[in-house]
Amino acid sequence: MSDITRIDQNARRSRASVFGDLVFLAGQVADTKTADITQQTKEALAKVDDMLARAGTDKSRLLSVQVWLKTMDDFNAMNAVYDAWVVPGDTPTRACGKVELADPAFLIEVIAIAARK
């Protein structure tokens, strides 16, 4: 049985968990809470990139992505950033929905599962 590796762990959560050849990312949010959806999406996806790299993989190995939005009014602007970010030909499955996020300043949260290289 494979060991579980936890990345950036505290008492409440790990930002990523690695089990076998799979990487599970916790929700990634922007650093700039006052930014618009375009900037918050860029920042959240940059954190996904960083966590995947720390786990030994990258976005070309994404299997599934969940995008949570504060409002579906941001759907098109988020998609403009997301579509430019994903690797053509290696797009993961994806779900997107409106949710009440833990901090009302956040406009987006991104959760992902990837295969390791």
TrEMBL record:
PANTHER family to which the protein is assigned, alphabetical: PTHR47328, RUTC FAMILY PROTEIN YOAB
InterPro entries xrefs: RutC-like_sf, YjgF/YER057c/UK114, YoaB-like
Protein's recorded name: RidA family protein
Cross-referenced Gene3D superfamilies: RutC-like
The organism's place on the tree of life at top rank: Bacteria
